[in-house]
Write a structure and sequence with these properties.
37% of the residues lie in helices and 39% in strands. It is of the alpha+beta class. The longest helix has 23 residues, at 2-24. The relative contact order is 0.18. The mean pLDDT is 75.
């Protein structure tokens, strides 16, 4: 007897939760639809980021180290290192679109 009562309570609880969840989103669908229609009518695209390359340049960084005799001024050892570096300047443009729908008004004729 207890197991059938528990099963019935569980079933009623699941059905109630399902109906509540289905009813909660109804008002939001109308707002989303109105927002989407307004964006399309005005030609406004969704927000996003766009990157463009302004300039790109390749250079070589050269570092020279010399060991010089202090008395004679003669170069005893020379060490050169070369490092290729690419510098890219980018410009980022961010589009941020905020749409605030108002209250839906119904008129009865």
């Amino acid at each position: 007897m207890r197991s059938s009562v528990r099963l019935a309570v569980l079933s009623v609880g699941l059905v109630t939760c399902t109906l509540l969840a289905a009813g909660c989103g109804q008002g939001r669908d109308a707002e989303d639809s109105a927002t989407q229609q307004a964006r399309e009518a005005l030609g406004v695209e969704d927000g996003g980021k766009e990157r463009t390359v302004e300039s790109k340049r390749s250079v070589i960084v050269e570092d020279t180290k010399r060991v010089i005799d202090a008395q004679t001024g003669e170069v005893l050892k020379t060490q050169e290192t070369r490092t290729p570096v690419t510098v890219t300047e980018q410009k980022t443009v961010e589009h941020d679109v905020n749409v605030k729908p108002g209250q839906t008004q119904k008129t009865v004729k």
